[in-house]
Design a protein that fits this description.
The chain is an alpha/beta fold and 394 residues long. It is 46% helix and 21% strand. Strand 14 and strand 15 form a beta hairpin.
Amino acid sequence: MADIKHRMNGDTLTIELSGHVDSANAADVEKAITAIREENLPSSIVVDCENLAYISSAGLRIILRIKKSTPDTKLVNVSSEVYEVFDMTGFTEMMEIQKAYRTISVEGCEVIGQGANGKVYRIDPDTIVKVYLNPDALPEIHRERELARAAFVLGVPTAIPYDVVRIEGGGYGSVFELLNATSFAKLLIRGEKSVDEIAKMSVDLLKLIHSTVVKPDTMPDMKAVALNWSEFLKDYLPADKYEKLHGLIEAVPDDDHMMHGDYHIKNVMLQNGEVLLIDMDTLCHGHPVFELASMYNAYCGYSELDHDIILNFLGISYETAHELWRKMLALYLGTDDEERIASVEKKAMVVGYTRIMRREIRRNGLNTESGRAVIDNARRHIEELLGEVDALTF
């Protein structure tokens, strides 16, 4: 008889099958599963097929009866061979069946990109993998794949993931084929591109992204996200400052143009002369002030009090990062007018430090000396900037 293990997680029963399920043992397998189900009374069932080597038509009928008794039933970790049986018999059209994922290691691999939700490693000369920080990231991975495809179809040059893998030690990753691709960060560090060249290439791509109109319901609205940031700070700012901050963000007009959401030199690659965008899970839509706020934080805000942060994150000095940010801002605005550049920078900083303050408080920063310093610095910036800024649009 096939070995059957099970476990409950909330109202979900996971049943693990292994070996063969065929006419010789189908009756015993079904009897055991029925007993487990009646004992636990689950509202949903997950059949884990990682160690299932073979299933016959008798086994398929067991799956059908499980599905009939508990409609919310799905199969996971199905090998290619077993998946083919389910596919040929039409089971993949009747219920959710997930293929097993191959396992890879990223130990010793070069980190070539980094975003809010994961790191990007080069695993061989032709291939990179984004490893997600969340160990249960499958929904995030499938969402990012859809976002990347949507951006690609709309004309934004981006790498499309072609495989999902397990990572040794836990977690999941998306695999991309990027031949001869080098991040802008690496090009700058190696001296293969100057700050001016990186700034121009970055802004050229950024303008393409921001010129792309998306369907609002396909991507998050950054205005709504930023409003949540400000609302979080209601109890941490003077009432008049909070009201102005919230009002400024609320007054930003709705905008259906695409934003990347985490745009910096580790998330842009150069491949055979073509610029490619990676790390697409932060794609959203909104007014460009929200993108500029994220960029300000990446190059300046997060590392203002500790310049080692930018060195560890992007591999460049704080001074170089600040120079790059200012040159990109000037190119984006199409002006050398320092007063104009400073005005827009202040608008971005209002949103940027709102995010930093909220982030540090949520990370228990109020209970550490370094955290309190970050929070106090962000609060000081916000309160000073609110005395100078009367609108976030430009």
